[in-house]
Amino acid sequence: MFAGPNTTISNDVITDLNRTALTLPIVGQVESLPLTLKIFLAILLVLVIVIGCVGNSVVCLIVYNNPAMRSAINILLANLALTDILLSAVCMPPALLMLFWKDKIIENIPCQMFAFLQETFVSTGTLTLLAISIDRYRIIVKRRDKLTSAHAKILTVVSWCLTILLTLPPLIGWGKYTYYPKQTQCIFGIYRNSFELVYLISKLCFINYFPIIAMGFSYVCIIDKVRRDALRIRNCPELDSHVSVTISNGKLGLPIIQRKKNSHIDIHFKTRSFKTILILFIVLTLCWTPYGMNLMISNVIGSYACVRNTILLWIGFVKCAVNPIIYFIYISKFREACAEYVPTSFKFSLKFKVFTKRRVNPAAIYEYREKNGAVGQR
C-alpha cells in the first residue's frame, strides 16, 4: 500500500533533480563577450585575414612561378602557406560573423564543417612544419642528404590525408563538433563516453603535442651541433697567409697561396634557413598550444568558458598573419617578390625617396669638387 506514494515521491524528486541538472548553465552559455572586446577582436581578425591571405599568397606564387624555387623546403613552406591561406579565407570570416550575428547565421551542418576544416588546416600546418624540422635535423646533425622535391610532394599529400583521417571521426559519429551559445564557432563537444575522451586526447597528442615535442628536440640537437662545431673551428690553429714558390726540374712552379679558412660562411649557410624555421616553430607553439590545452581541459571538466576560448582561438588565428612577416624579414627572395607585386607608382615613389635620402648629405660631392679644383689650379 505504501509502495505507490513512496515511489511517486521518489519519481518527483528525481524529476526535479533532472530538471535542475538540465537547467544548470554551461560556463560558455552564460558568459558573453563585452562589446569593446568584440570590436577589438573584429578589427584584429580583419587585419589577420588581409595579411594572411595576401602574404601567404605571395609565398605560393613564388614557388609556383619560379621553377628554380621548387626545392623540397620551398614546397613544404608553400604548403604551410596554403594552410594559412585556407584558414584565413575559409574559417575566419564565419568566426567574424558569428562574433556579432551568431543567432541568425549559425546552423548545425555548416558549423560542423567549419570546425572540421579548421582542425584540418591547423593540423596540416603543424605536420608540415614537423617535416621541415626533421629535414633540417637530418642536414645539420646527421649530415645526410636532404629531401628531394618528389619526397616533399609525397610528404605534403601524406600530411593532408593523415590530418583528414584524424579530424573526420566527429563528422561520422565518433564525438561531435558542437555549437554552444555565446561561442564563435563549433568545438569538440563535451564527451559522452570514454571513447570520445580517448579520441580527443589521442588526436591532440598526435597532431599537436607529439609534433611540438619532436620539433623542440630536433631544434635543441641542431643548436647544440652548431655550437660544438663553432667551438671546434674556433679552437683550431689559424693558418697565416703566405705565398710559397716551388721549383721542379729547375723550373719555377705555380705559387701556392695559403689563406685562413673562412668558417663563418659555412656555419651561416647551414643555419640561415634554420633560424627562420625555428621562429616559425616558436610562433606555432605560442599561438596554438594554449588553445589545444584549453580544449582538452575544458572537455574534461565539462564546461567551456566563452571569453577564454574565443581569445585563445583568436591568438591561434594571429599565427597566419605572423608567418608572412617572418618570411619578409628573414627571406630575401620573399622581399624581392613582394617588390615585384607592388604597384609601379608606389615603387617609383619609394625609389625617389631613397634617392633623395642618399643625396641629403652632399659631403662626397663637395670633396670631389675640391679635388678637381686643386688639380685644375696646378
TrEMBL record:
Keywords attached to this Swiss-Prot or TrEMBL record, sorted alphabetically, are: Cell membrane, G-protein coupled receptor, Membrane, Receptor, Transducer, Transmembrane, Transmembrane helix
Q: Which residues form the G-protein coupled receptors family 1 profile domain?
A: 55-327
Matching PANTHER family, A to Z? G-PROTEIN COUPLED RECEPTOR, G-PROTEIN COUPLED RECEPTORS FAMILY 1 PROFILE DOMAIN-CONTAINING PROTEIN
Main localization (coarse): membrane
- Please name the taxonomic classification of the source: Eukaryota, Metazoa, Spiralia, Lophotrochozoa, Mollusca
Q: Which organism is it from?
A: Crassostrea virginica (Eastern oyster)
* Keyword ATP-binding in annotation: no
How is this protein situated with respect to the membrane?
Multi-pass membrane protein
Where is the protein localized?
Cell membrane
> What is the protein named?
High-affinity lysophosphatidic acid receptor-like
The terms describing its cellular component in GO are: plasma membrane
Which Pfam families does this entry report, sorted A to Z?
7tm_1
Signal sequence coordinates: none
InterPro entries in the record, alphabetically?
Answer: GPC_Orphan_Receptors (IPR051880), GPCR_Rhodpsn (IPR000276), GPCR_Rhodpsn_7TM (IPR017452)
Tell me what gene encodes this. LOC111102806
Q: Which GO terms describe its molecular function?
A: G protein-coupled receptor activity
Which family is annotated?
A: Belongs to the G-protein coupled receptor 1 family.
Where are its TM segments located? 39-64, 76-101, 113-134, 154-177, 197-222, 273-291, 311-330
